[in-house]
Amino acid sequence: MEACAAATYGAASTCTPLNFTFSHGRTKTLLHSQIPIPSKKGTGKSFSIVNASRRTLSSNWLVSDDDFSASTTSPRLPRLEELDTTNMLLRQRIIFLGSQVDDMTADFIISQLLFLDADDPKKDIKLFINSPGGSVTAGMGIYDAMKLCKADVSTVCVGLAASMGAFILASGTKGKRYCMPNSRVMIHQPLGTAGGKATEMSIRIREMAYHKIKINKILSKITGKSVDQIDLDTDRDNFMNPWEAKEYGLVDEVIDDGKPGLVAPIADSSPPPRTRVWELWKIEGSRKAKKNLPSEHKFLEEAYKKVQGGDDDKGTQQENEAPAAV
After folding, report:
1. Do the Cβ atoms of 123 and 154 come closer than 8 Å?
2. Neighbouring residues of 101: CB distance < 8 A, sequence distance ≥ 6
3. DSSP 8-66
4. Domain ranges of the chain
5. pTM for this one?
6. What is the pLDDT of residues 72-90, one digit of tens each?
7. Which residues make Cβ contacts (< 8 Å) with residue 138, sequence separation at least 6?
8. CA–CA distance from 99 to each of 128, 193, 251, 303, 309 (Å)?
9. What is the pLDDT of residue 198?
10. Which of 2, 39, 76, 181 is the most exposed place for a label (fewest CB within 10 A)?
11. β-bridge pairing 184-187 and 177-179
12. What span is annotated as the signal peptide, if there is one (predicted)?
């Protein structure tokens, strides 16, 4: 049976097992299940349990509106240093596949592709790949998501793109598939094992053959080579350097140090906002001191003059040198 409590507004009662003191001046008897709970905003009511005979409630328990006001903090945007590198890259429309292609990785990549495509379908999505490959079904899920996106998906190989990693690399938008000069690309046929009963093994083998034919047809469409040629080239592990991968049709360009223009389609995103590091470099002083500080444009201009001046002086020195007597 529920115990009754005399709720006293203004004066506490000593003859009841539960004795409440409220900030108003009325008296009311309540069941234990009818104990009022203070709201988070603006009721102005607070109470304290002076004496309690039930062990489920602690004595001298104070509740006031201030206890709730501290938890309702005003919302704010997270600082850039509070975000991880994945979110920072995502703000620049960059996705990084740097592990094996499994179901969890595929879910993560697919969700990022769909988010960036919904955010702005007119801007390119950059997918950097450094993966040894993995699950065929997970890789086909990423492939379908890339084809589903209205935005162009630019793929870049850094390090290694093997097996399904190479397949995803070649599945990027034509003309926007890149390879770093020191990376490697490898294609081969699907791998797997079959065990159990003979019937179960035949089912697994038939499924592996299906994936092999499906991947070879897609690679044939991407590279322009025949299915028989793809089947022959993927019979064993086929490693390629970036230029061989370009000639084969898996990528379009190699980002070489001698061709800096190829980096432009990848680095077209806006710079990130200033962080706390900027405050460490901020110059304090008068306006005149700040005005006389050399800017980045001045640094580049002075460096260009030094280079031009050094070449001119070298040429003048060579002209003034007399020919050696024979």
Report:
1. no
2. 131, 133, 134, 135, 138, 139, 142, 163, 164, 165, 168
3. EESS--SSSSEEEEESSS-EEEEEGGG-----SSS----EEEEEE-STTS-TT-EE-HH
4. 4-69, 78-187
5. 0.56
6. 455 656 565 555 777 888 8
7. 101, 102, 103, 105, 106, 164
8. 11, 22, 20, 42, 49
9. 87
10. 76
11. unpaired
12. none
Burial of 125 (0-12, 13-18, 19+ CB in 10 A): buried
Q: Please, what's the b/e burial string for 190-211 (b: 16 or more CB within 10 A of its CB; e: otherwise)?
A: beeeeeeeeeeeeeeeeebeeb
Q: Which two tokens stand for residue 1?
A: 């049976």
Query: Could you give the residue numbers annotated as active site?
Result: 163, 188
Would you list the DSSP string of 87-123?
HHHHHTTEEEE-S-B-HHHHHHHHHHHHHHHHH-TTS
The DSSP letter of residue 283 is P
Fold of the 78-187 domain? 2-enoyl-CoA Hydratase; Chain A, domain 1 (3.90.226)
